[in-house]
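Working notes for the structural subgroup meeting. M.R. asked for a predicted model of this chain before we commit to crystallization trials. I am recording the input and output together here so anyone reviewing the notebook later can reproduce the run.

Input as submitted:
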Amino acid sequence: MTSKPIKREREPLTIKSAHLNMIEAFPNGLKGMAMALGDDTEVRLKNQAYEQKGMHVPTERSLLMQEFTGRTDFAEAVAHQSGGVFVQMPTDDLVDGDIQELFMECTKELGKLVAEFQAATDDGVVDALELKRLEAIKTRLCTKAASIIQMTEKVFCDQTAGESHG
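Returned structure, recorded in C-alpha cell form:
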C-alpha cells in the first residue's frame, strides 16, 4: 500500500483518546481544531474532548474531526468499543503487490503478538498493561487480515458477476 499507517498515540482507542489524537494531529492542536469546527474559543471543544462539565463531543463533530485530520481514530474507537475492528475500504487503484505487502505486515504483527505473549506469560500472570498490549496487537492484526480479504475481493474477484467463483 502506498500510505503508511498512522501511529496511534493511545491504544486500544477509546472515544476520548480518539478525540485527543485527532486534536493533537490537527495543525495548531486544540485551538486550530476549535476554529475549524466554528468555535470562537477552544474552551467548548476542550470541555467536550476531556469530557468535563458533563460535556462530550457529539457524533457529528467527531466525524468532522476525523474528516479534517484524515485519520480514522473515531471509527476505530467505535469499532473497538463494539467488540470489532475498523477496516478501511480499499481504493480502486490496488494491485497484487499491495496485498503482498499487507501479508508481510500481518506476519510482522503476528511475530509481535507471539513475542508479547511470551513476555506477558513468562511469569505465569498477565497484568492489565500486558493485556492491553496484547489487545492492541490483536486489533492491528485483525484489521490487516480483514483488509487482505477486502483487497483480494477488489483486485481478483469479478465485480460484474453476482456469483462466487468456485
